[in-house]
Task: structure prediction
Amino acid sequence: MKSRIIIPQVAPEAYQALMNLEKYISSTSLTPIHKELIKIRASQINGCAYCINMHTADARKLGISEQRIYLISAWREADFYTDEEKAILALTEQVTLINNHVSDEVYQNAAQLFDEKYLAEILLAIITINSWNRLAITTGMRAV
Result:
């Protein structure tokens, strides 16, 4: 692959703004497992090998089993996820695939399981990882 733009060097203020959003996500009340499920599932959908590699490694460090990591992309057919995790994964999929919109059913299911603050944090975490995926894919970042 030909060399591509390095955003932190060319637009450091914009990159720092995205880093600040990531720092905010790190400071939220979202559980570490919820954060990693969001990051892995969105990265799978977007095909971001760099982020999948990073966040599956982070998930292992948190103690998420290999089986749960491997089955994230097929979570509907696996009995390894809580109702809360299923709601997060469904919301992650619909926000990531936003051209199909977020259905009332998926949104209301999440809204019934989480208070407004936690739901807002989930949505912001989904939006943030989608931004990182787009940056990594567009600039040619590679999993190593």
Observations:
- The mean pLDDT is 96.
- Residues 36 and 123 are 14 Å apart (CA to CA).
